[in-house]
Amino acid sequence: MTRRKLWRATKAMGLVFLLVGVVPAESWTVRNLSVNQNLNAISFGNKEHGWIVGDRGLILHTSNRGASWEIQTSHVRTNLNDVFFVNKRRGWIVGDAGVILTTTDGGAHWLSVNSTVETDLFSTWFVNDKKGWIVGADGLILYTEDGGRQWIRQITGTDEYLYHLHFRNDKKGWVVGSTGTILYTDNGGRNWTKQSSGTKDDLFRVYFRNDKEGWITGARGLILHTRDGGKTWTPQPSGVDHTLLGIAFSDKKTGWIVGWNGTILHTRDQGKTWALVPSPTRERIYALYVTDEGEGIAIGRNGLLLVYKR
Prior knowledge:
The chain is mainly beta and 310 residues long. It has strands at residues 16-18, 27-31, 39-44, 50-54, 59-62, 68-72, 80-85, 91-95, 100-103, 111-113, 121-126, 132-136, 141-144, 152-153, 162-167, 173-177, 182-185, 193-195, 203-208, 214-218, 223-226, 234-236, 244-249, 255-259, 264-267, 275-276, 285-290, 295-300, 305-309. The strands form 7 sheets. It has a 5-stranded antiparallel β-sheet with strand order 1-6-5-4-3, with no helix packed on it.
């Protein structure tokens, strides 16, 4: 596996893609989007409005909880790696070669922002409509406090690839990356300190349910868990030996992890144990979104989209 992000493929701009069919209870079902780009990230600004980004500048938008998706114009052909919305109008997208896009009208218009870098950007997180961070290749972390008009590079002390970040508030956040890298800040990134992961495997996603309890997913079926804010990280059995990526919880007890080979893991005991559940695909699944009503959307390679209803 290369150190660039895990997604690539192709296809085009189009119209509105209706998703039809009934989802059986307790199962994930494939829906046809009629695109074959890799779908890399998903974000919802509220229960109705969501966005998916993918390779070659693809942006999809739903205004009906994912029942249908419509292409939005990005004006770029770059691979887009992450999307984050703080509400149904205000959002950001990051991609390869330093691409940053922003919208204030729900994606009716996407504008390019000068990132001042040409580094591949992998993930972004905003705590409100002003303060946000971006992570990328070669130890890059960028910070804004004006909604992304200006970006300031923060000192990280590493040149590892940084793949994902999660902030609890405008002070406390975590970043994960290649060769087991975990970075932590309690002052908004003015200082980043390393936490010990106990592994040299690449780490791809980090998720915290509260200030103390969090999970990390990574290469070779790796799941790490902490109960003390990352002071100690403990491996959890996953039952698989390939890359794990997206992680999300729908409530305190119920969570999901997705990954390569169509992997879907499920917990019903607050993340203490994870079990492999039937999957309708062997494609790589990159990201997912779940609601507290028990609905879910997972996305991945070659235009893959899965839906779930409890």
